[in-house]
C-alpha cells in the first residue's frame, strides 16, 4: 500500500510504501466478483502521479484514481482465478487485467471487470508477455504510433525513452513500417542495444548532450516527421524545434515531468502554428477496441523473430518498491514487471 503521499515536487522512495495483511472475500454482487492470485504485475511510471498529494495540472488523475495512504495500488497484471461469483470466469482461468501490487486481488466493479480478459492456456508464448509486449505497453506503442503517428514509409521517427517498455516497441514497429528511426536513452549500454539488437538506425544518450535542439538537428538533418514523446520537458521542446511541416507529435507520456512540475515543457507555439504540427495525447484504453488486431499482428512478429521482446523481471512482492523507484531512475531495460509467484 501507499504509506506516504508525495509532495508536488518529489521523487518516490521505497519507504513511501508499506506491506499489509488483510482479508478479502467475495460478495454476491449483481456483476459477480473474482479473486485472482497474481502471477506477474506491471510496474509503470504513471503510478507516481497517483501518489501526489496535490497537483495543479492533474485534475483528471486526481479525481479518478488518486491513491490515499493505506490504499492498495491497482496495476495491470496476469494471474489465476482462485474464486469467482462471476459467470464469465471460473476457478483456474488465467486472466489479464487491472489487478494490484498484492498477492491476491479482488476484482469488482464495472471498470475492472470489463478489463478482465481470459487468456488462452494453449499459447506458446510466455505468460509474462501478456504484461508487456502483449499487454498495455504493447497496445500503447501500437495504438499511439499507428493511430496518432499515422506513419508512412520513409518517415523520420524520433522516440524518447527508447529502451523502455513502450519506446522500444514503438521503434521496432516504426522499423517494420519502413521508417527511419532514432531513439534516445539514458546510458551507453541502452544506446548500443537499440542500434545493435533492435535495429534502430541511430541512438544517443541524452544525458551526454547539453543542447538537445542541436543534437536532434544533427541526427535529423532533414527534420522529424513523427516524434513519439515519452518524456516531455526539454526533449519535447527540442523535438518541436526540429519537426517537419505537418509533423505529428504523439504525446504518450512525460516521465521527466512527473516528479518535478518545474520541468514542465514550454514548446514554441509559433513553430507549432507555422509548421502546422499536430500534438495529440491519448490513453491506452482508447485502443482497447483494436486489441485483437494488435495482439495477432504482434504475436506473429514475435514468432517470426521480427520483434525482440525485452523484459526486466524482479522476483517477489517485496521487490515492488525498489522496482518502481528504479524505473523512474532508468534502471530498467524493456518492460519492468514483478513476478509475484511462480506458476
Ligand atoms: P519505461 O519502461 O520507458 O520506463 C521509464 C523510462 O523513462 C526509464 O527507463 C528511463 O530511461 C526514462 N526516464 C526516467 N526518468 C527520466 C527523465 N527524467 N528524463 C528522461 N527519461 C527518463 O516506461 P513505460 O514504457 O511504461 O512508459 C513510457 C512512457 O509512456 C511514460 O511516460 C508513461 O507514463 C507513458 N505511458 C502512457 C500511457 C498512455 O496511456 N498514454 C500508457 C503507458 C505508458 P532512460 O534510461 O532512457 O532515462
TrEMBL record:
The keyword DNA repair does not apply. Signal peptide: none annotated. Keywords: Oxidoreductase. Residues 13-338 form the Enoyl reductase (ER) domain. InterPro entries: ADH-like_C, ADH_N_2, ER, GroES-like_sf, MDR_fam, NAD(P)-bd_dom_sf. One of its GO terms (molecular function) is oxidoreductase activity, acting on the CH-CH group of donors, NAD or NADP as acceptor. Pfam families: ADH_N_2 (PF16884), ADH_zinc_N (PF00107). This is Enoyl reductase (ER) domain-containing protein.
Amino acid at each position: 500500500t501507499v504509506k506516504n503521499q508525495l509532495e508536488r515536487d518529489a521523487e518516490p522512495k521505497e519507504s513511501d510504501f508499506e506491506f499489509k495483511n488483510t482479508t478479502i472475500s467475495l460478495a454476491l454482487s449483481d456483476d459477480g466478483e473474482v479473486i485472482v492470485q497474481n502471477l506477474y504485475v506491471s510496474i509503470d511510471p504513471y503510478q507516481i502521479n497517483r501518489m501526489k498529494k496535490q497537483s495543479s495540472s492533474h485534475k483528471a488523475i486526481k479525481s479518478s484514481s488518486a491513491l490515499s495512504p493505506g490504499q492498495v495500488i491497482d496495476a495491470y497484471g496476469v494471474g489465476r482465478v482462485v474464486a469467482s461469483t462471476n459467470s464469465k470466469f471460473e476457478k483456474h482461468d488465467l486472466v489479464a487485467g487491472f489487478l494490484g501490487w498484492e498477492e491476491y486481488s479482488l476484482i469488482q466493479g464495472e471498470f475492472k471487470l470489463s478489463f478482465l480478459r481470459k487468456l488462452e492456456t494453449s499459447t506458446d508464448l510466455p505468460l509474462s508477455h501478456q504484461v508487456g509486449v502483449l499487454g498495455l505497453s504493447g497496445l500503447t506503442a501500437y495504438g499511439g504510433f499507428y493511430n496518432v503517428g499515422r506513419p508512412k514509409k520513409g518517415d523520420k521517427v524520433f522516440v524518447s525513452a527508447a529502451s523502455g517498455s513502450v519506446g522500444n516497441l514503438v521503434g521496432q514497429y516504426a522499423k517494420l513500417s519502413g521508417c527511419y528511426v532514432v531513439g534516445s536513452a539514458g546510458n551507453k549500454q541502452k544506446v548500443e542495444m537499440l542500434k545493435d539488437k533492435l535495429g534502430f538506425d541511430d541512438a544517443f544518450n541524452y544525458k551526454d548532450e547539453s543542447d538537445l535542439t542541436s543534437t536532434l538537428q544533427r541526427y535529423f538533418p532533414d527534420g522529424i516527421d513523427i516524434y513519439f514523446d515519452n518524456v516531455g520537458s526539454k526533449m519535447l521542446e527540442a523535438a518541436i524545434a526540429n519537426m517537419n511541416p505537418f509533423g505529428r507529435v504523439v504525446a504518450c507520456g512525460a516521465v521527466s515531468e512527473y516528479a518535478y512540475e518545474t520541468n514542465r515543457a514550454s514548446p514554441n507555439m509559433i513553430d507549432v502554428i507555422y509548421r502546422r504540427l499536430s500534438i495529440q495525447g491519448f490513453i491506452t484504453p482508447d485502443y482497447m477496441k483494436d486489441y485483437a488486431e494488435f495482439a495477432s499482428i504482434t504475436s506473429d512478429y514475435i514468432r517470426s523473430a521480427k520483434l525482440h521482446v525485452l523484459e526486466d523481471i524482479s522476483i517477489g512482492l517485496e521487490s515492488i518498491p525498489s522496482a518502481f523507484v528504479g524505473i523512474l531512475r532508468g534502471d530498467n531495460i524493456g518492460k519492468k514487471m514483478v513476478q509475484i509467484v511462480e506458476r
